[in-house]
Amino acid sequence: MNEFERDDAAQWEAAEEASEMMLEGDYHDALVRLRDVIKSDPRNPYAYFYTGTALFEIGQFGAAAGAYRAAIKISPRYTGARVGLSHCLRIEDEPRAAAAEARKALELSPGDGDALFALGLAQAALGDKVGARRSLEAFLHTGPEFEASAEARAILARMQEPDSDNDNDSDLDDIN
Question: What's the burial of 133, exposed, middle or buried (CB within 10 Å: 0-12/13-18/19+)?
């Protein structure tokens, strides 16, 4: 194991306890733990990523975006952080920026299911039904988990319905 791999493993290990807390739904205690990890190692991208994830889960999307940006600044190839940032930007009504982050994630990890899903949601929020359909169908071919698959299929079904508002994409408004 080289020095980079040792450092990466140590950084992951430092954030692992908090990630386990989050799996149990204990986001607030995870944030306390992650704050301590960041104090001891301000260059730990995993700590910032999981901080973003915990903040996202408690509905603090702007703060979550900041944490994801910090992870990306430390580790520009961190696909998961780019996907998380894409979701935050879409929810914060910045669909163009969300799509750009999802595309960067796909450049780093071509065919990544999470990035395809993020891009599809951003494209739908932009009203780009053709792009959204293409991205979401590609996402479904990655074998996603049931919940995300069901969400993608529901969005695709809504895009198939005739517009009741004469080309107004209000049927996609709840994507944000």
Answer: middle
